[in-house]
Automatic annotation (TrEMBL):
It comes from Hemiprocne comata. This is ARSJ Arylsulfatase. Belongs to the sulfatase family. Residues 546-560 have a biased composition (Basic residues). It comes from the Eukaryota. Residues 53-365 form the Sulfatase N-terminal domain. InterPro entries: Alkaline_phosphatase_core_sf, ARSB, Sulfatase_CS, Sulfatase_N. One of its GO terms (molecular function) is sulfuric ester hydrolase activity. Keywords: Calcium, Glycoprotein, Hydrolase, Metal-binding. Its cofactor is Ca(2+). Residues 532-545 have a biased composition (Basic and acidic residues). Residues 508-560 are annotated as: Disordered. Gene3D superfamilies: 3.30.1120.10, Alkaline Phosphatase, subunit A (3.40.720.10). Pfam families: Sulfatase.
């Protein structure tokens, strides 16, 4: 037992030193014995597991569909490959084309049209956030006894204190509020002269952590601390939203070692960032095993949208990129890894969407879904774990009524059912329909990454006939969206346009307010943070009301 204690102590030191450890180095790999696990569990106070599983949701940022080893990438991702191979790969899995929409749909289980966040992202200077009347996943998990923690990128608004993560269901928060920033200094400029610091611990600016640590490593260290201090007998929800591999393209020098041969500098930096992220997820997995969580845990990995070729990402062989409704913008890398899965080592080709995690995880947590919430997601655990058919038959990718209208779109082009000038996209069974301006539509093959960046001359482009504003694809037969079938199947086009129209009747108004000059960090101590003071407004209104009363009283006296 003394030897076991010494080994455990050394393992703990090596884990805290944040080395890239192999799974077997702690004696915690797939081949470990029950005796080894029980001894370590006793030493760490793991005890009997709760019937409610520990939920670890890992969200990568801007990872391209091709950018994982098991999708044929030249970038090595041994951890992701191993976790996915031993779990269930989601190969018909969809997210939204940008940061805020995917995060809002994950945390609410609702489409953008039902939260008012249909257009673009929440900008740092906008007085906007995820509407406060939306119940969030961590709030529901807290109701059934979960400890809830968030580490990483929020990007769901912060102009009021009520919008902060700790006010939306998380017991603790450590991370950034904005959509991007420097990985070392945590500094962000939204525009010239509008710059500030962006790192928080709970509701306070985390100046103490301004030590130049690369954010991927810093966030992982925080996750390790949370797991080390929490009691594994009690269920935990851990939402890890890494900043990587979003621009700016920065990575510690040692991660470039295997990628010197990549000529394109953006792709090389991106590869180094992804290598560091893969190592981080390895260390999170080790910590789950080390501290007694793993056997009763569900690990979900997802990208928030497609990759951005100009920033090193690759979605090949899919069409389009981040910010578009082509498959390259919305079809994501995703998998579930868990000892609780029944069909381990399988591939799920059933339709799955990011809104599905809300009801799925809440049901696994033995929570209740309120009838008045009206979710757009489905419980797909049996689909993933047992290989059953998905209850989902359609996905509203989005309807954005204020996006730049397609010049030649019209009601006539939409058979009088839909105005095809409006940007929208929908999937029903095998069919996908796009209207309006769906965004950058090139295919960007790996050889397109020249020294100067993705070279447009190497890209495959299609020059559509003038006036085209409707596309139809059979995604099951044609996942690369090469054959437009809208002219061949007008009846199917009409059916999908009617479905769009039905969805649109349930949409709430778009929330996309103009910039507020009070958001400038210079007015808030040099940091990005809540600037809207509701109390001050009330005080001002109360004062004005009081002044009006005094004036009225004086006027009455004068009249008397």
């Amino acid at each position: 037992m003394l030897a076991v204690g010494v080994l455990a102590g050394l393992s703990l030191l090596s884990l805290l030193a944040y080395g890239y450890l192999s799974w077997d180095s702690l004696g915690l790999g797939p081949g470990e014995t029950e005796a080894t696990r029980s001894e370590l569990g006793e030493e760490l106070g793991a005890g009997a597991p709760s019937s409610q599983p520990h939920i670890i949701f890992i969200l990568a940022d801007d990872q391209g569909f091709r950018d994982v080893g098991y999708h044929g990438s030249e970038i090595r991702t041994p951890t992701l490959d191993k976790l996915a191979a031993e779990g269930v790969k989601l190969e018909n899995y969809y997210v939204q084309p940008m940061c805020t929409p995917s995060r809002s749909q994950f945390i609410t289980g609702k489409y953008q049209i039902h939260t008012g966040l249909q257009h673009s992202i929440i900008r740092p200077t906008q007085p906007n956030c995820l509407p406060l009347d939306n119940v969030t996943l961590p709030q529901k998990l807290k109701e059934v006894g979960y400890s809830t923690h968030m580490v990483g990128k929020w990007h769901l608004g912060f102009y009021r204190r009520e919008c902060m993560p700790t006010q939306r269901g998380f017991d603790t928060f450590f991370g950034s509020l904005l959509g991007s920033g420097d990985y070392y200094t945590h500094f962000k400029c939204d525009s010239p002269g509008i710059c500030g610091y962006d790192l928080y611990e709970n509701d306070n600016v985390a100046w103490d952590h301004d030590t130049g640590i690369y954010s991927t490593q810093m966030y992982t260290q925080k996750v390790q601390q949370i797991l080390a201090s929490h009691n594994p007998r009690k269920p935990i929800f851990l939402y890890i939203a890494y900043q990587a591999v979003h621009s700016p393209l920065q990575a510690p020098g040692k991660y470039f070692e295997h990628y010197r041969s990549i000529n394109n500098i953006n792709r090389r930096r991106y590869a180094a960032m992804l290598a560091c992220l893969d190592e981080a997820i390895n260390n999170v997995t080790l910590a789950l095993k080390k501290y007694g969580y793993y056997e009763n845990s569900i690990i979900i990995y997802s990208s928030d949208n497609g990759g951005q070729p100009m920033a090193g990402g690759s979605n090949w062989p899919l069409r389009g990129s981040k910010g578009t409704y082509w498959e390259g913008g919305i079809r994501a890398v995703g998998f579930v890894h868990s000892p609780l899965l029944k069909n381990k080592g399988s591939v799920c080709k059933e339709l799955v969407h990011i809104t599905d995690w809300f009801p799925t995880l809440l049901t696994l947590a033995e929570g209740q879904i309120d009838e008045d919430i009206q979710l757009d997601g489905y419980d797909i655990w049996e689909t993933i774990s047992e290989g059953r058919r998905s209850p989902r038959v359609d996905i509203l990718h989005n309807i954005d009524p204020i996006y730049t209208k397609a010049k030649n779109g019209s009601w006539a082009a939409g058979y009088g059912i839909w105005n095809t000038a409006i940007q929208s996209a929908i999937r029903v069974n095998h069919w996908k329909l796009l209207t309006g301006n769906p965004g950058y539509s090139d295919w960007v093959p790996p050889q397109a990454f020249s020294n100067a960046g993705p070279n447009r001359w190497h890209n495959e482009r299609v020059s559509w006939s003038a006036g085209k504003t409707v596309w139809l694809f059979n995604i099951t037969a044609d996942p690369y969206e090469r054959v437009d079938l809208s002219a061949r199947y007008p009846d199917i086009v009409k059916q999908l346009l009617r479905r769009l129209s039905q969805f649109n009747k349930t949409a709430v108004p778009v929330r996309y307010p103009p910039k507020d000059p009070r958001s400038n960090p210079k007015l808030n101590g040099g940091v990005w943070g809540p600037w809207y003071k509701e109390d001050e407004k009330k005080k001002k209104s109360d004062k004005s009301k009081g002044a009006n009363k005094q004036k009225k009283n004086k006027n009455k006296k004068k009249a008397n």
